[in-house]
Write a structure and sequence with these properties.
about 525 residues, 3-stranded antiparallel β-sheet, alpha/beta, disordered N terminus
Length: about 525
Amino acid sequence: MSNSSIHQTDDLLTIAEASAWVSEYLEKSITPSNISYLIQYGQVRKMLSNGSTMVSRTDLLSYYEARRSQEAEWKKQLGEDLNWELSFDKVREKDRTKHVHRLHSYKGKFIPQLVEYFLDDHVDVYKHEVFFHPGDIVIDPFCGSGTTLVQANELGIHAIGLDISQFNALISNIKIARPNMARLSEELHEISYALSEHASLNGWSAFDEELTTALSAFNQKHFPSSEYKYKVRNKTIDQKTYAAAREAEFSEIYERLIEKYKLPILSPGLTYLDTWYLYPIRREIDFVANLVSEIDDLQLRSIAQIVLSRTVRSCRATTHADLATLKEPVTSPYYCRKHYKICRPLFSIESWWKEYSEDTIERLKEFDHVRTATHQLCLVGDSRKCDILSALKLEDQGFAELLSTQKARGIFCSPPYVGLIDYHEQHAYAYELFGFERRDSDEIGALALGSGQKSKGLYIQGIAEVLINCRGYLIDDFDVFIVANDKFNLYPKIADIAHMQIVNEFKRPVLNRTEKDQSAYAESIFHLKAR
């Protein structure tokens, strides 16, 4: 639709008209999907006119002016060199989590668009040259969940990842795996069928069904989705008072159901799984884990482990807002700050297992459409001292020969921050469930060590040792990119110890953070070269 067809005197616009109007107003592309996203999350009101979804021009103007003000204020606080384009604020969540990037949750990962920005062959006013080309090799010594490996594959670049965590390596290698999709589908379907049979034999199904029906009706009445979110965001309703009253009201319904069915809620025992999973969930986890362990194909078994791990993570007895940082087990319904309604703990993993099984298959298929015939592999090891070539020879002889012949073009990574995240503990359920070895004490910047002067010194030495070790596998004129929020100004010292120099720093605002902390926050992408 052309801009001339929009009636400027009318406040209501269709989604297509809104997309065109905002694009013209901001002088940059805003897609209909961007507008739909704002409606979905209550940033602008959803209105109806003759059966069509409409939005208010006034609401849109208010929202985008606030974003402009945010950019100006953040630059005032963080510096005018803040590159707002690197916020990727126009990228939809669907694209930030495209194909295999959402095979499993992982706290602290960077978005694929950031990796792509530095690995691809474009240039712009900030990136003046192309650093990597198809056929090059890139190393990520802090592989995490494998974002660098996946994006390198898309761009026709070979990639080697290293990670101290066996579970992180499992996630990464599954993302770039080439499984027999027919067999995978068959294995997951058989487990789904067995789980359904198992669930139907216990007394929880009827309780769960009645609870679900009651909660759905309650939320529809008291928390109409987009309308309620909009009222909360615009402070026309006292969220705290209103939500507390509704939570107490539904708790009475819940207690009556518990009394009616007289079923056990808590799991006996003191392990992580006993503590954070209600009794019926715990039973189903063990049931599915046994079936997964019986899959004879190692690759298919590994994928099934990831599906189960993702399922188990979503079924912990905690609030949705606290999934990333557990506080205390939740055994009754609660007002959810994330979903703006009453939510409840789960009593079966069946729906999540089925959803994640199907989602995993679809995401692997989706990635198949963009993957290239290149090498990617995540090795389990300490990046400070791992003999990368020897380890690679044990896993992929062809890739090892390629590395030996041409060496790596550079590094792209995001190291852990000082005393911020416990990378093993965030997946404690998986380590216990699958019996993986935990190497918490080998983490660089471990949360348990805090961020005091001693910890900073150990961090500087650790990161420098990683760079020194990896440098032996790089070409002479290498390019190293490190994503970090260097609030302690540690990286100049790190670069110096590693006999490198910081030749450029790209500062990007980090948006889409939790609502608990909306303060101005940026991270840097340091570009290092040989000194």
